[in-house]
Amino acid sequence: MIIMGIDPGFDRIGWAVGQLLGQHQLNLLSYGLVETNKKADLFTRYAQIEREFNALTKEFQVDEAALETLVFFRNYTTVIPVAQARGIILSSLIRHQVKIFEYSPPQIKMSVTGFGRADKAAVAKMVRLQLHLDEQTKIIDDTYDALAVLLTHLGSRGLQQQTKV
Length: 165
What we know:
The chain has about 160 residues and is α/β, with parallel strands linked by helices. Helices cover about 50% and strands about 20% of the residues. The chain has one domain (about 1-165): Nucleotidyltransferase, domain 5 (2-Layer Sandwich). Strand 2 and strand 3 form a beta hairpin.
């Protein structure tokens, strides 16, 4: 089973892909960012997002994807492009028949750190610890968030299977 965690955005979209080995074991395959050119027009950027997510989904043969929901946005000038980019990502996943799951930011923070209002530094630290990532490796916040979404889905997935008895 191949699972993708996604932190939706517009300028930068974090993603992480892992292979489920056991009920709670994950082999981290890859992670990174889709970065759009801030100087490009809106539709060129959307097209790039679609191309890159189509390529990632095909390359890793993703079975399930988990995304962070958009709950609250402080910057009203970017909420629409982020929501539209998220829709493009969802469309790409649906086209490839990927099963989709969503988690709110507090759910992700609670799952990864044990505290639903944890800051980005706490999330990053717990992601590094849980995935045994080298502290010297430079990882952008959006990618940490995608890794956290992946870990949240891994934990939630095990619970979902347990309750289907």
